[in-house]
Design a protein that fits this description.
The chain has 18 helices and 7 strands. It is mostly helical. It has one domain: Amino acid/polyamine transporter I (Up-down Bundle). 53% of the residues are buried.
C-alpha cells in the first residue's frame, strides 16, 4: 500500500517483502527550494500537444524513407513499415499514459523506471539521455538546420572551415565550420530563451510547431494533387508488393523470403521509430503541465496520432510523385526535397530547405525545454550534479539547461574520418546509431513497468488505466523485443556499442552519490544505493 502526497510519499511494502520493508521518506523531485521557487504549471493541453508534435517532427520524415525503401523494396511494404512504427508509437503512448497519470512529476521515464525497478535503472536512463539521446539529437538536428540553411546561404557549409579539422586520432578530429558555428549558435540561442522562463519556450514551441505542421501538410497536399505522376503511380501501385532494388542483410537474405521480409521490416524501424521518437518528452515536464494526471496522457495520445497520420499520408504523397527507385536513390536521401523539386523544378529545393529549417528549429526548442527537467529531477535525488537541481527566478532549471546546451554544442564539434574513402562524418551520427537499440530497451522496460506496478502497487491511484490492458502492452513488448533481437543479430556494429554506453553509467551511479554525499552537509552517507538498488535515507526512493 502506498499513498501519494503533494510533497512527500511514504511507502510500506507488503509482508512478503518484509526483509526489505522500511518506511522511506521520499524527496519529491520538484519541491520548493530554499528560495521558495517551484515550477509554474503553465502548459495547457494545447501547449503540451504542441510539445509532443514539435519534438516528433524534425527532418527524419523528409529523409529516412529512402533507406527504408532500399531495405523493403516495395511501395506496399513501405507503408506497412510506417504503420508498424505508428502502431508501436501509439501503443507506447497509451501505456505511458498510465504511468504519467500515476506519477505526474518532472522526470518522465527516469521516474517511471526508478519506481518500477530501482534507482539504478532510472539513473541509467537519465545517464544515457544526457550523454547521447537528448544531447546527441539536439546536436544532430542543429547541424541539419545548418545544412539546409546552406541551400539558402551557400557560405554556410560543413566544408567551409573557420578552424580546419585537427586530428586527435586517425579516425577522429575536431573542427569548426560555418555550419557547425551556426549549429552551436542555434543551441545557445534556444538554451538562453528557455532559461528566461516557460512562457518563452512555450511561445517559440507553439509558433514553430504550427508552422512545421502546416509545412508538412502543404507538402502532402502538393504531392497528392499537383505532383501526381502517372509513370510513378503505375510503377509503384501496379504491383505494390513487388520488390525492387533490394538490400541484402545476410548471405542470400532479402525480402523475397518470409524471414527476409520480417528482418527488413524490423531493420526499417530504426528509421521510422527515430523519426517518431521523443513523443514521451512531455512527461519530462509534467511538473509544469496543468492537470498533468489528465493532460500529459491526452497530449501524448493526440500528438502521436496526429504525427503518425501525417507521416503515413506523407509517404503516400511521395509514392504518388516519385517512383520507388527515385525514392531509393534520392540525392543525399532527401526524399522531401526530391518531391518538391519534381513539382517545382526551379525552386522546390529552396522551399524544402526553408520548411526543414522551420521544422528543425522547433524540434531543437522542444528537446532543449524538456530534457533539462530530467537532469533536474535526478539532481533532486543526488544522482546528478547538485547545481542542476535548482530553479532560477523564472522558475526553470537554468543550470540544467546550460549544462545540456554545452554538452550538445560540444557534440557538434567532433568529426569522424574514414581513411579509405577520405570522407568526413559527424561523431553524433555514430552515437545516435549506437543508442537506438539502447533507447528501445528502456522503452520495453518502461512498458513492462505497467505490469510490474500493477502487481507491486495494486492500490495506487490510477486516474487513467492503459487502454486494452493487458493486450496492448503485451503486443508492444512482443513487437519491440522482436525488433531488438533483429537489430542485435543484423546490426551488431551499431547496437552492441549502445549497450556499452549504458553500462558505462553503472560505475558513475556507484560513485556519484558518494561524491555528492561527501560534499553535501545535509545528506547522510547512508543514502548511497545498496546492492539491491534500495536507498535508505530521506533522499531515497
Amino acid at each position: 500500500m502506498y499513498t501519494i502526497c503533494n510533497r512527500q510519499t511514504q511507502i510500506s511494502f507488503d509482508k512478503a517483502d518484509a526483509k526489505l520493508t522500511q518506511k522511506l521518506k521520499l524527496t519529491d523531485p520538484e519541491p520548493q527550494d530554499g528560495g521558495n521557487r517551484k515550477f509554474t504549471r503553465g502548459l495547457s493541453l494545447f501547449d503540451s500537444t504542441m510539445l509532443v508534435v514539435g519534438a516528433m517532427i524534425g527532418s527524419g520524415i523528409f529523409i529516412v524513407p529512402a533507406e527504408m525503401a532500399r531495405n523493403i523494396g516495395s511501395a506496399g511494404w513501405l507503408l506497412v513499415a510506417w504503420g508498424i512504427a505508428g502502431a508501436l508509437t501509439i501503443a507506447g503512448a497509451l501505456c505511458y499514459g498510465e504511468l504519467s497519470a500515476m506519477m505526474p512529476r518532472a522526470g518522465g521515464m527516469y521516474v517511471y523506471l526508478r519506481e518500477a525497478y530501482s534507482p539504478l535503472w532510472g539513473f541509467l536512463y537519465g545517464w544515457t539521455l544526457f550523454s547521447v539521446i537528448q544531447t546527441g539529437t539536439i546536436a544532430a538536428v542543429a547541424v541539419a538546420f545548418a545544412r539546409f540553411s546552406g541551400v539558402l546561404w551557400p557560405r554556410i557549409s560543413e566544408d567551409h572551415y573557420l578552424i580546419a579539422p585537427i586530428h586527435i586520432s586517425t579516425r577522429y578530429a575536431l573542427s569548426l565550420s560555418t555550419a557547425q558555428l551556426l549549429a552551436v549558435g542555434v543551441i545557445a540561442l534556444l538554451t538562453l530563451t528557455n532559461t528566461l522562463g516557460l512562457r518563452y519556450g512555450r511561445l517559440i514551441q507553439n509558433v514553430f510547431t504550427v508552422a512545421k505542421t502546416g509545412a508538412l501538410f502543404g507538402l502532402i497536399v502538393l504531392g497528392i494533387f499537383l505532383g501526381r505522376n502517372p509513370a510513378a503511380i503505375h510503377f509503384n501501385w501496379s504491383n505494390p508488393w513487388q520488390p525492387h532494388g533490394l538490400n541484402f542483410f545476410a548471405s542470400g537474405l532479402n525480402v523475397t523470403t518470409i524471414s527476409g521480409l520480417f528482418v527488413a521490416l524490423c531493420l526499417s524501424q530504426t528509421g521510422s521509430l527515430f523519426s517518431a521518437d521523443s513523443w514521451h518528452n512531455i512527461a519530462f515536464t509534467a511538473g509544469e503541465v496543468k492537470r498533468p494526471e489528465r493532460n500529459v496522457t491526452l497530449a501524448m495520445v493526440i500528438g502521436t496520432t496526429v504525427v503518425i497520420t501525417l507521416y503515413l499520408v506523407a509517404n503516400v504523397a511521395y509514392l504518388l510523385t516519385l517512383s520507388l527507385q527515385d525514392i531509393q536513390h534520392a540525392p543525399a536521401d532527401r526524399v522531401g526535397t526530391a518531391t518538391l523539386t519534381a513539382i517545382f523544378p526551379g525552386f522546390g529545393a529552396t522551399l524544402m530547405a526553408a520548411a526543414i529549417m522551420v521544422s528543425t528549429f522547433g524540434t531543437i526548442n522542444a528537446l532543449t525545454l524538456t530534457g533539462a527537467r530530467v537532469y533536474y529531477a535526478m539532481a533532486r535525488q543526488r544522482l546528478f550534479f547538485r547545481f542542476t537541481g535548482e530553479l532560477n527566478s523564472a522558475g526553470v532549471p537554468a543550470s540544467a539547461l546550460w549544462l545540456q546546451g554545452l554538452w550538445a554544442a560540444f557534440l557538434v564539434l567532433p568529426r569522424t574520418y574514414d581513411p579509405a574513402t577520405k570522407l568526413w562524418g559527424n561523431l553524433y551520427s555514430s552515437l545516435l546509431e549506437y543508442v537506438i537499440s539502447a533507447a528501445l530497451i528502456f522503452y520495453v522496460l518502461t512498458v513492462a513497468g505497467v505490469f510490474r506496478l500493477r502487481s507491486k502497487r495494486p492500490d495506487a491511484p490510477r486516474p487513467y488505466r492503459t487502454f486494452g490492458y493487458p493486450l496492448v502492452p503485451a503486443l508492444y513488448l512482443v513487437a519491440a523485443t522482436s525488433i531488438l533481437v533483429v537489430l542485435f543479430a543484423f546490426r551488431p556494429a551499431t547496437t552492441w556499442p549502445g549497450l556499452l554506453i549504458v553500462v558505462l553509467g553503472v560505475p558513475v551511479y556507484l560513485v556519484l552519490p558518494r561524491i555528492q554525499n561527501h560534499r553535501g552537509r545535509d545528506v547522510d552517507a547512508s543514502s548511497t544505493p545498496g546492492a539491491d538498488g534500495t536507498v535508505k535515507d530521506p533522499l531515497g526512493y
